[in-house]
Amino acid sequence: IGGVWAKHYEAAGVLAGAWNRTPQPEFPKWKREAREVASAAEVVQIVVADPPAVQSVLDAILPELGPGKIVVQSSTIDGESSEASLKQVEARGARYLEAPFTGSKLAAEARKTVYFLGGDAGLAAELEPLLALVSEFRIHIGTHRQATAIKLAMNLNIAVQMQGLAEPLTFAGNAGVSGETY
Q: Is the distance from CB of 128 to CB of 120 less than 8 angstroms?
């Protein structure tokens, strides 16, 4: 999804650079290293898989962070990991906004993702025009920990719904009911 957003940011003329852990030189304004993006950009948005991946990106970009830089963390992580990221970024003099999102790749392509923003409300408002380029809604939830909690709660809700759907389908299938019936 980060690659989709990079294309939207590029189309809007605001992309300073893009990087991916798996080289993707076809990305607009591709940089070979994450620190090159952090050096070139005022706002660095992190979109990776999990807390260890977030930490690896932070390790690479922290030397480039300082006053005037902003990290927008959009990966799905827990509150403790968010707290650690916030402290590392702020220790460098940069600012931090937790911004997990909901929505698929198709939603990202259509600019229909929804951000759950956590952290300083003034920073969220400052970044509103930028984040609006790639999303339909931006909801300030409260603290950075609260933003991670609502994202994880939404994921849990989806998982429970999928389990609730799978159980009766399996039950019916085990009874010999054809999948064409339901």
A: no
